[in-house]
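Students often ask why inverse folding is considered easier than folding. One informal answer: many sequences map to the same fold, so there is more than one right answer. In these notes we will look at a single instance of the problem. The structure comes first.
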């Protein structure tokens, strides 16, 4: 059994969890992060490391893996520690205050504050109900883009109407031989700017855009060779394709977090927007895992939540000290 003593245990080493280390570090609080994935970065590293992100302040465009790398450089001065590839399996509240977080590898993290940062546990892609889908998984059907070069000069079909489908359509239009985006509606759920760019590519003949269509089957022998779909008139069509990338989001599972006595709304933790605290004193939730009126599931919103969380966590970690808010632009990181 491995015993770790720290000020804050952060469950989830995605971008919001990593930035929470920075905000805590400015206030002299030590952090240990636990993540079920074998590397930091959360979904950015596991699902779309090469995906461009457009809504990080100061970055007109930044690849997911680059953002994660920059966050690691940013928090390096605060020397966080990690338990990666370990799933949180238990939480015990100590009588004298604080918590003990236990993991699947018998790691015990003794801490004063727990921050759930994305901590969705295991997540799986939402799969469309298609004939022969599972038969062609890894043989043409893929649910995430880890290496865009896999699709170099290939015919690909992307299905979905959210940000991931739009972003990858834009990106892979410069990589693949042919890109077809299929969406079951006439309008998209993703960013309006991205939707406009996709439509412009379609009008210029650089991609094929098929709206009000429903996928029906994946076809082939040893590997996928084509995709069938029906249009708005219910007529069946078939198109040649080397790859199908269904991007319908993820199905999160809270796992043991659901048993911690937290107020939940479906698969999200209800928080107080003053500091993103939960109904359990000493436990905070930031990032996509939380919910409140007006919630936006954006990385930049999670960064904001991390900053306010750290201010309240300080009072729990250092109850006898008075918090004096400072600006890094004046004093620099090393001054803290």
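Output (designed amino acids):
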């Amino acid at each position: 059994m491995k015993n770790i003593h720290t000020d804050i245990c952060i469950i989830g080493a995605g971008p919001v969890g990593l930035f929470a280390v920075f905000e805590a570090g400015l206030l002299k609080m030590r952090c240990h992060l636990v993540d079920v994935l074998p590397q930091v970065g959360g979904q950015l590293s596991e699902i779309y490391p090469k995906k461009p992100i457009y809504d990080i302040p100061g970055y007109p465009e930044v690849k997911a893996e680059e953002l994660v790398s920059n966050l690691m450089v940013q928090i390096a001065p605060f020397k966080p520690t990690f338990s990666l590839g370990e799933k949180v399996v238990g939480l015990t509240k100590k009588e004298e205050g604080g918590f003990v977080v236990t993991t699947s590898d018998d790691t015990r993290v003794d801490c004063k504050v727990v921050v759930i940062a994305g901590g969705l546990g295991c997540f799986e892609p939402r799969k469309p109900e298609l004939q022969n889908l599972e038969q062609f998984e890894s043989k043409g059907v893929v649910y995430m883009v880890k290496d865009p070069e896999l699709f170099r000069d290939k015919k690909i079909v992307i299905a979905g109407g959210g940000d991931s489908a739009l972003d990858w359509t834009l990106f892979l239009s410069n990589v693949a031989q042919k890109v077809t985006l299929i969406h079951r509606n006439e309008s998209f759920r993703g960013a309006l700017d991205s939707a406009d760019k996709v439509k412009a590519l379609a009008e210029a003949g650089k991609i094929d855009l098929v709206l009000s269509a429903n996928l029906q089957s994946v076809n082939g022998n040893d590997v996928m060779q084509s995709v069938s779909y029906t249009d708005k008139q219910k007529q069946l069509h078939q198109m040649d394709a080397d790859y199908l990338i269904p991007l319908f989001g993820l199905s999160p599972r809270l796992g043991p977090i659901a048993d911690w006595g937290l107020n939940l709304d479906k698969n999200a933790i209800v928080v107080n927007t003053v500091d993103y605290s939960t109904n359990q004193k000493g436990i905070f939730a930031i990032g996509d895992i939380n919910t409140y009126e007006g919630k936006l599931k954006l990385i930049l919103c999670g960064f904001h939540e991390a900053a306010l969380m750290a201010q309240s966590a300080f009072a729990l970690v250092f109850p006898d000290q008075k918090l004096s808010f400072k600006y890094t632009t004046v004093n620099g990181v090393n001054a803290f």
